[in-house]
Amino acid sequence: MASSDGTSLVWLRDDLRLDDNPALAEAARLGNPTTVVYVLDEVSEGVRPLGGAARWWLHHSLNSLADALEAKGSRLVLRRGPAADAIRTIARQTKAARLLWNRRYGLPERNIDAALKDWAAGRGIEASSFQANLLFEPWTVRTGAGGYYKVYSPFWRACLASHDVRDPVDAPVALPGPAASGHGLPASDTLASWKLLPASPDWSGGLAKTWEPGEQGAARRLADFLAGPLEEYGSGRNIPGTEGTSRLSPHLRFGEVSPFRVWREIRRRHPHQVPADVGIFRSELGWREFNWHLLYHNPDLATRNFRPAFDKFQWESPGRQELQAWRQGRTGYPLVDAGMRQLWQTGWMHNRVRMAAASFLVKNLLTDWRVGEEWFWDTLVDADAANNPANWQWVAGSGADASPYYRIFNPVTQSRKFDPEGRYLRQFIPELAGVEGKAIHEPWTAETGRYPMPLVDLQDSRQRALEAYRKLKEG
To answer: Is it the case that residue 276 has pLDDT exceeding 90?
Structure first.
């Protein structure tokens, strides 16, 4: 039977960090030979393969993690294939006495983890999991009737009222080296052999200029945000032409920074009373929690309408040219186009612009939200299994606590209000660099040369969408 003796196997997943990593901290506390492994699983049933932008990020994040582990005296072992098979194999090879990992919340992943716990129990191997990536475990936040919350505001109030947020755990000072088998140290794939980086062509230049994947990059991003934009987040988050948001989302998605660390740093700056702007940012962390709460209780969030009534909605299949125009940022509406080009260049889009771009596809073009969700899954560096589909369903009106059906973002009104000088628009649409004044928001009123005319009329397409939603409401 397992005890304090023997070897440990730490399986990292969406927690690519040393700081506040409970599974790694437990291995360090035990002090036994420890193998740290990451498995690229693209084949297990129900597991969704990463999109192209996320694969780029993963490559660089794993490089950073491997360097950090080596600096602590450890080593990162890479394996590819069905995760359950890979973990069983390396556990046998290293004669592991215990398996340690941080919990996941998607159903396919939970099934894999549960099966591995059963396998380990049958062989006298301890298997322990830890809370690392959500502030509040989904099964602990329940309504008075014992169900789960389907509206955000009472969910977040319940979280804050009834649950304490634990303190983060410091990174280990040192980590035990990996366990050697009779054939030496555990074999590892080379990261290059996974071919996560794009080639022929390599479209990642803009991503590399924009981001620093890895735990150090996450720490720097967090420090910059806390030192500036946090205190004016309530207003700054709406201005796409400024650095008013945290840009922590991809670091949180890959677990390069812990939400507990973010929470603690905010509390350290505001130990007694949280200012309104800071509270708004904390509520955005709460929205992330809410989306994972929804996914835990609705595993098919990316493929099925949360509200079954929307199964009868009459989506229209967009023409190839219309869909390509949206993807490429050539709809004729500058805010939508700037956002879609920002997405392609940097793997990220400002949140207010995401809502406008998604609303345009779903409501002005009456395109099934799943089409947009799949595109964002492939092109966003921060796309995860909960937030990406939940946010698309929010825009479509088919999700939990969704945007009302009659809320159709007008990209012209939005850009006039939140980018009045056109700074954001000109940054990503060079064809409009010379357009002066208010015409930047309606370039069809000026001579703009190569910039396309509007794909659809906003008023006509709005009325068409409202009529489609009215028919659904009437049954």
So the answer is: yes
| 400: nearest Cα among 246, 265, 291 | 291
Question: Does residue 182 carry a pLDDT above 70?
Answer: no
Is there a contact between 229 and 236 (Cβ–Cβ < 8 Å)? Answer: yes
Catalytic residues: 284, 287, 315, 351, 369, 392
**Residues ≥6 apart with Cβ < 8 Å to 435:** 422, 443, 446, 448
Domains of the chain: residue spans and CATH = 7-132 (3.40.50.620), 134-168+213-299 (1.25.40.80), 308-474 (1.10.579.10)
Counting Cα atoms < 13 Å in the Cβ hemisphere of 273 gives: 2
Contacts 24+ apart (CB under 8 A), 306-311: 306/393, 306/398, 306/399, 306/400, 306/402, 307/397, 307/398, 307/399, 307/402, 309/472, 310/396, 310/397, 310/398, 310/472
**pLDDT score for 3:** 41
Asked if omega into 201 is within 30° of 0 (cis), the reply is: yes
Token code pair at residue 385: 């299994």
The answer to pTM > 0.85 is yes
Task: Give the integer Cα–Cα distance in Å for 25 and 19.
Answer: 9
Residue 192 CB partners (closer than 8 Å, separation 6+)? none
